[in-house]
Amino acid sequence: MRIHQEYDVSGEWSRRLSLLINLINILESIKADFECRNVLICDPIDESELLGSSITICVNECMEIPNKVQELGRLIDYELISDYKVRIEQEVSEGLSVEELYYKAVNRFDDLFDYLDSYLLKTYLEGLEYMVLVLINGKALLLEGERGKIVVPVKGVLASAHTHPRGCLPSPHDIRSLIHILFEGGLGLGIKSKDCTLKIVRMGPFTERDYVELAIFRNVLRKSDLEIIKEVIRKGVIGDNIKIIISF
Predict the structure, then answer these.
(1) Is the preceding peptide bond at 44 cis, omega within 30 degrees of 0?
(2) Residues 158, 175: one domain?
(3) CA-CA-CA-CA torsion for 206, 158, 78, 95, nearest 10 degrees?
């Protein structure tokens, strides 16, 4: 794919979204790797205060003690947080759970669409598609693709959204890009046109069933089986944890 233009559109919005997705992956990893019963961000408990702060993660009933978490150190390198600590508690009751972080991240996903609004008319008239990417380090890029085609070109993408000339039905290429994003620990993919917006996001760990169901959906899109496509979108769920959100 040829990319005509690339712009850095990084800002506090992209750093906040990247941090949320990174924290989701880290909390899920701690719970699985150390077999903890509960894992929460217990300080700060206000999502708006997470960026640039010292993060305290509270855990309990773990098989092992998670003293050092390499992924959290990487967030310091990216300057998304200033420091971190993991605290063992007898009972973990108050804090930001993984489930809450998912909902907050999906809500912040809409920030990607804001950068696409001014390109919708050009896409509609000329067919050129535009994409916004949020990367693992908190940076964001705006890309100009080709007529009727644009795909995720780099690794480390946590979220992406792009324009369509008409409608917001994903293409087989879009689902392939989505699968790559989810394998990288990303949140999902969005599509925006003058008619509608679509988000396909995960609300839990990316499972084998999610992958299989997405691959099946990709084949359905290849065959243009409109009845099945409409039914999948109407249900709003693919596999275990993939959610489809559409608005007109």
Answers:
(1) yes
(2) yes
(3) -50
Q: Is 6 helix (H, G, I), strand (E, B) or coil?
A: strand
- Using the predicted structure, report yes or no on whether residue 146 has a pLDDT greater than 80: no
Q: Which residues contact 204 (CB under 8 A, 6 or more apart)?
A: 102, 240, 241
* pLDDT for the residue numbered 148: 58
Tell me what the mean pLDDT of segment 141-160 comes to: 79
Tens of pLDDT, residue by residue over 173-205, are: 999 999 999 999 999 999 999 999 999 999 999
Q: Where would I find the beta strands (DSSP E) of the chain?
A: 5-8, 38-43, 54-60, 83-88, 128-135, 140-147, 157-163, 188-192, 197-202, 237-238, 242-247
**Which 3 state secondary structure label does DSSP give 18?**
helix
As a whole number of angstroms, the distance between CA 42 and CA 163 comes to 38
Question: What's the full length of the chain, in residues?
Answer: 248
Range of the domain at 24: 13-97
Q: For residues 85 and 137, state if they share a domain.
A: no
